[in-house]
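Re-run requested by the PI after the first attempt was lost when the workstation crashed. Everything re-entered from the original request form. Ligand of interest: pyridoxal-5'-phosphate.
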Amino acid sequence: MTELNIPISMPSMIGNEKKYVNEALASGWISSSGKFIKRFEEDFAKFSNAPFAVSMSNGTTAIVTALKALGVGRGDEVIVPTLTFGATANAVVNIGAAVVFADSATNSWNIDPEGIEKLITSKTKAIIAVHLYGHACNLMRIRELCDKHGLYLIEDCAEALGVEYRGSKVGTIGDIGTFSFFGNKNISTGEGGMCVTLNSDTNAKLRILRDHGMDPQKRYWHLEAGYNHRMTNLQAAIGTAQLENIETLLQRRNEIYQCYHNELANEKFFLDIAPSKSCSFINWLFPLCLSDSYADSKNLLMKYLAEKGIDTRNFFFPLHEMSAYASSQSDFPNAIAFSKRGLNLPTYYHLSDQSVRIICKHVRGFFSSQ
Ligand SMILES: *Cc1c(COP(=O)(O)O)cnc(C)c1O
């Protein structure tokens, strides 16, 4: 029997990536000027149906720059789900604002809008809604709350590129949407990120902040203490090629979801968490939630799959439990339950249906031997 070696994820360079990178190299523009930056931003804006897209060095700097552009800083509070990748909260902490954690919903691992209002104080400045594992948050409720209380809404779309909420692409309902193009995301530029906005002033601020805070009309004149959060032309060359195949790439991810779902949906250990009816769904890393009586076996299952050569990931750990965030909050039953029962299974363009069926065979095999 051949040994399996199935990684959790892999970038999928199926088009003009090499060609465009070579063009960028040949042009000599390998830093943050060059034609691919403009082209990638324009193509991304078009894909998102938004007027403005501003490329960034990665998904985390995209969030930092977004917060700064909206004027969030020291003394402000930002509401963030406790169940997310640490980068969402790190961005808030590192601009000097305070993180206030929110629980997940009962029927979704995403932030529970009903729990948000009680967290709002006179210091609250923004909410970061994270669209985790390819599901969109209940953006309507969250947008309403933001409008009612005069708060900014940032959408962290790192795991939801291509998802639509009530017909709009995620990232365009908040004041700013942020994206990541890390190697395991729906499209990749190696490292890379993007901010999307409908507001031209916000667009201008994002561009100034990412470029050292420099006045676009006057070089070496700093309007504020900004950052170097720029993407390179080499990264943008890859991104441009990735976007040319975006529909093919996203479609394959959802075919993989269907294959997993067909294989697992009737199993007793499978807890089906459906995306909200208001949103489309793009499979990032297949999220497998174990039902109550099986959740305790999750670590053993992950170990068993690793021994078979199948890489998996734990759902994120709730951030409020980590000393890094020094949170005094503690009441997050839904986030804790999701974190305990959830794991991600391999998903990437080149993963075949046959491999998905083999993975599922091993998952079922583990539980039938329990
Ligand atoms: C990947 C990710 C980020 C960070 O993106 P980087 O490009 O790795 O900095 C932020 N938030 C979420 C939810 C992510 O999954």
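Saved to the shared folder this time. The chain has a mean pLDDT of 97.
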